[in-house]
Design goal:
Murine Class I Major Histocompatibility Complex, H2-DB, Chain A, domain 1, 5 helices, 302 residues, 4-stranded antiparallel beta sheet, 5-stranded antiparallel beta sheet, 3 domains
Length: 302
């Protein structure tokens, strides 16, 4: 994207009737953004920038490239790239209530946030850029009224339709599998690792139990962020640093929507014993195969 992407930033609309006639000697910048929905699977976007009634540039509806009509724009616009982002949508709670959100960010940091009930924008950091954006958008009353309707009505209606027709996908549940193993973390430390994978949906609760009691948060306990798998499920790791042979029993406890009221409990001792048993079985199978090959070669030679 071009460094001057702010020229066609899609949230700065100018609606008819929101601006009074210009006084003599005053100037106005207009940034217009258009979205045309051809059908349910395709759309075209376009934009137009004007200073007064002079067309200074446009956004190509096919390539989304910005075209400049005035050579002096290149000197007036910033030279360094920058990024604007937006995060907007709605959430339907199990009790039927809704939550909406609309946040605009700059360079990865929240800039302003829309307050649905008031229909206004609130700055997140208190700086010159957020103050300018807050002032500009709070003056666009027609735009803010439209955003209220889009978030509180249109978004919720669309979400309910998606849930109705896509219930099998939206309410899919995959139970987690968990394994516990140990790694040496130092001369007198052992790191117990609980790996949980293959679960859906994303929310999950992981805890360590010491002698049946939950280990409280602390420097010895560390749980990773939930990460996606290639098969549209999730995984997470949780580690607990302990002293070897400290005389305590440890277990990893997992709670997930797919398990209902049950918990998945993986004790460290049983996990270790299962690993050893698996290695023994594998070694015995290897011995049998090697013995069979030796007998076959021996008979072939004689």
């Amino acid at each position: 994207m071009q460094p001057c992407c702010l020229l066609f930033f899609p949230f700065f609309f100018f609606f008819p009737g929101t601006w009074a006639e210009l006084e003599a000697g005053s100037h106005m910048l207009q940034l217009r953004y258009f979205v045309t929905f051809q059908n349910a699977t395709s759309m075209q976007v376009g934009g137009l920038g004007l200073v007064g009634d002079i067309r200074i540039g446009s956004l190509d509806s096919l390539t989304e490239d910005i075209h400049y009509y005035k050579t002096w724009l290149h000197s007036a616009l910033p030279k360094d790239p920058f990024v604007f982002q937006s995060f907007k949508g709605c959430q339907l709670q199990p009790n039927g209530t809704t939550r909406t959100f609309f946040v605009i960010a700059y360079e990865g940091q929240d800039l302003i946030r829309f307050h649905l009930n008031k229909g206004t924008w609130d700055r997140v950091p208190d700086n010159e850029m957020s103050a300018t954006a807050e002032h500009l958008l709070n003056n666009a009353t027609t735009l803010n009224e439209l955003i209220q309707v889009l978030l509180n009505v249109t978004c919720v209606d669309i979400l309910e339709k998606f849930i109705e027709y896509g219930r099998a996908d939206v309410e899919r549940q995959e139970p987690p599998t968990a394994t516990v193993f140990a790694r040496k973390a130092g001369p007198a430390q052992l790191l117990l690792v609980c790996r949980i994978t293959g679960f859906y949906p994303r929310p999950i609760s992981v805890a360590w139990l010491r002698d049946g009691h939950e280990v409280p948060p602390g420097p010895a306990l560390n749980t990773s962020a939930v990460l996606p798998n290639a098969d549209l499920t999730y995984q997470v790791y949780s580690g607990l640093t302990v002293a070897p042979h400290d005389g305590h029993s440890y277990a990893c406890r997992v709670r997930h929507r797919s398990l209902g009221t049950r918990s998945l409990l993986v004790p460290w001792g049983q996990s270790n014993a299962g690993l050893i048993a698996g290695l023994v079985v594998a070694l015995l199978a290897a011995v049998v195969v090697i013995g069979a090959l030796w007998v076959w070669r021996y008979r072939k030679r004689h």
